């Protein structure tokens, strides 16, 4: 069955909605958080760990996989799912953001973007057509258009030119697509200018995609500005298609964004912070290396039933971290992803029961978000 | 039930025997390989991974745990089993070998050994009594005497002095022991002098221990010399007690040593080599980073049914290794430990069926050992 999205429930008092995405590799219940598996591995976890955590979809990056091991290698080995032994849906990012991150190592032209590999300095040229081709070879379930990401702050004229180019590239992406077993999402840009966000939303929507992403956010702007840009975009997006905000965010961001009508999220925060010893809990963050945890027999979060919290003390997790043991990253990653994925389940249930507004207010006032987390 | 060892079967044509060790934390079937969990973690694996691999006992190191997080911390948290969430037996090494490895940072005296921490240079003094106290606080199932390890080569006189001191320390270890829920193993030294090995074996046996270890082997001597020293020791050890060769060895060593009457093994080889990308297979070693594996869809070993081989190709394992992904170490470690633990199961079955001599000859002639592995 081809890609399809259903809104199962529009919450009464907010823009939050509960939905379901159907793909060839299974269904995804939205709002959904997608763990990040940049290089065809969610760092330190097996696919079975992710299934235990009830992850329904992961995101991989074509920029990295194109450079190493090469998308064609993965294609010859049966595609990305088989390569990494993950049978559920995969979304692939087009590489626009990664290439943008190379700053001095890239040059954007109308035809595409020339960049140097961060691995060996070799030169490459990524075009919209090439981005689609790579994703078709990888055979991911949801593919993304190549877009032009811009830094923050950026001038109006520069932002406008990126909107125009992103639209042009989106058309070329759609035109070059050859397989109807994969979904293709358009990406809305427009920097921090509400009128450009609106313009971009209309232009991308007019081309017509299976879903719509908000790109270029969470790049250094204030939270207030980020939500202004979301509100300058989502009203113009069709209700019947999933909305995906790229690279966002903290637990508080997830809850707020759902209230603004967002259905899909990805972020390195839970996994990267886990490796750095920062754990999300219902009572705020735990920095596991802190001396106060050296003899604590309690789990990271006494209200958590993840594998890590069921079996290990803060003292042991601190020991693993201080000793540089690899198991540290894994146990912490399990905990943080469990926190994120459980939060999404709680969000979905609140929407189903028409009490998302209250849930959101309670959560945002709780100790779980009393800290600002660094992205 | 206190510690007890039964020889269930003495193989007819060799010195190999099949046995069972009973401890408060469960039984161990011998000959047994003990995965190394130096710092209270078998690197990259959870206790559940080890159970899946059918590991029955692991070894931890009091040198490391004494320094970090501190044995008293672990004691206050309920002991080593609870600390690391491993409910099956644990053997703790006394630290003798680790302190020996510090070379210039240690000074051996009759009273004990003074050493500097490799972590922060702080000074510590380890005595036989202290080694026992630490192991009692950790509450491991099998504890080891503090011994004096010597480098290879070493003069006769120096080796003799280490034998004398090791015997003196073994007596003090036994005398200072206060808990009868833990087994205590004596360690035979004697360097590469057959008469000193025999002398040490007699002296240690006369003190009387729950099991006997062969220390100071696999320190740079030839294989021929190592087996000479084993044969200079085991005939003098009681048949009714387990025999443990410390820090040995390659797959071929395990098979050969079993034929020489050894019951217990530990070695970092399978786990350390896994992290370095060297995999044991039935057809010899696989260096996973080699370019020849870049597009291989076959598993590491087509005759292996471990989790890694059931689910992942050599190409994917190579990608993980080249990309520096943490999952690389874990999948490789699972495979290598499975190789070792399955080999031990095959050995036990061959002994039970009185065909160990043929098994040994076949294995030692097979491609599985056609390479020398670096320890």
How would the blueprint of this fold be written?
2 copies of one chain form a homodimer.
Chain A: E1 4-10, E2 17-23, E3 26-30, E4 32-34, H1 47-52, E5 58-61, H2 62-67, H3 71-76, H4 80-84, E6 90-93, H5 96-101, E7 106-108, E8 113-116, E9 123-126, H6 128-138, E10 142-144, H7 156-176, E11 183-188, H8 194-207, E12 211-214, H9 223-231, E13 243-245, H10 251-259, E14 264-266, H11 269-275, E15 278-279, E16 286-287, H12 307-311, H13 314-322, H14 326-352, H15 356-365
Parallel strand pairs in A: 4-14, 5-6, 6-10, 10-11, 11-12, 12-13, 13-14
Antiparallel strand pairs in A: 1-2, 2-3, 7-8, 8-9, 15-16
Helix pairs in contact in A: 6-7, 7-8, 10-14, 10-15, 11-14, 13-14, 14-15
What is the topology, as strand order, of the major beta sheet of chain A? 4-14-13-12-11-10-6-5
CATH architecture of the largest domain in chain A: Alpha-Beta Barrel
Radius of gyration of chain A using CA atoms only: 20 Å
Fill in the CATH topology of the largest domain in chain A.
TIM Barrel
Average pLDDT of chain A works out at: 96
Biggest interface goes to:
A-B, 38 and 38 residues
What is the beta-strand fraction of chain A?
15-25%
| CATH H-level superfamily title of the largest domain in chain A | Queuine tRNA-ribosyltransferase-like
Q: Assembly type of the shown chains?
A: homodimer
- The number of helices of chain A is 15
Strand runs of chain A, count: 16
Structural domain tally of chain A: 2
Helix content of chain A: 40-55%
Q: How far from one another are the termini of chain A?
A: 37 Å
Largest sheet of chain A: 8 strands, parallel
Supply the helix-strand structural class of chain A: alpha/beta
CATH C-level name of the largest domain in chain A: Alpha Beta
């Amino acid at each position: 069955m081809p890609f399809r999205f259903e809104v199962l429930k529009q919450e009464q008092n907010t823009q939050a909605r509960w939905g379901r995405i159907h793909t060839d590799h299974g269904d995804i219940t939205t709002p959904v958080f997608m763990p990040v598996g940049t290089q065809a591995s969610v760092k330190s976890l097996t696919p079975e760990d992710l299934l235990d955590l009830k992850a329904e979809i992961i995101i991989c990056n074509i920029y990295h996989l194109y450079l190493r091991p090469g998308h064609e290698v993965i294609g010859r080995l049966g595609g990305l799912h088989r390569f990494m032994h993950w049978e559920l849906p995969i979304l692939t990012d087009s590489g626009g953001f990664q290439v943008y991150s190379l700053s001095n190592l890239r040059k954007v032209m109308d035809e595409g973007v020339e960049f140097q590999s961060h691995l060996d300095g070799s030169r490459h040229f990524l075009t919209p057509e090439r981005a689609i081709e790579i994703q078709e070879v990888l055979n991911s379930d949801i593919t993304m258009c190549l877009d032009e990401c811009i830094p923050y702050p950026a001038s109006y004229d520069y932002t406008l030119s990126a909107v125009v180019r992103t639209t042009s590239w989106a058309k070329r992406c759609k035109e070059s697509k050859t397989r109807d077993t994969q979904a293709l999402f358009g990406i809305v840009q427009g920097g921090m200018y509400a009128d450009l966000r609106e313009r971009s939303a209309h232009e991308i929507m007019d081309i017509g995609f299976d879903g719509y992403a908000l790109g270029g956010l969470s790049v250094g702007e204030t939270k207030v500005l980020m939500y202004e840009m979301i509100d300058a975009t989502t009203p113009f997006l069709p209700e019947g298609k999933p909305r995906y905000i790229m690279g966002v965010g903290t637990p508080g961001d997830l809850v707020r964004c759902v209230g603004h009508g967002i259905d899909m999220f990805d972020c390195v925060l839970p996994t990267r912070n886990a490796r750095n010893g920062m754990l999300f809990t219902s009572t705020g963050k735990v920095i596991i290396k802190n001396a106060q945890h050296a003899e604590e027999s309690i789990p990271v979060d006494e209200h958590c039933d993840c594998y890590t919290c069921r079996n290990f003390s803060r003292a042991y997790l601190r020991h693993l971290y201080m000793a540089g043991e690899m198991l540290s990253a894994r146990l912490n990653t399990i905990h943080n992803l469990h926190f994120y994925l459980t939060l999404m389940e709680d969000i979905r249930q609140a929407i189903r029961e028409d009490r998302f507004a209250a849930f959101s207010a309670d959560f945002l006032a709780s100790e779980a978000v009393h800290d600002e987390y660094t992205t």
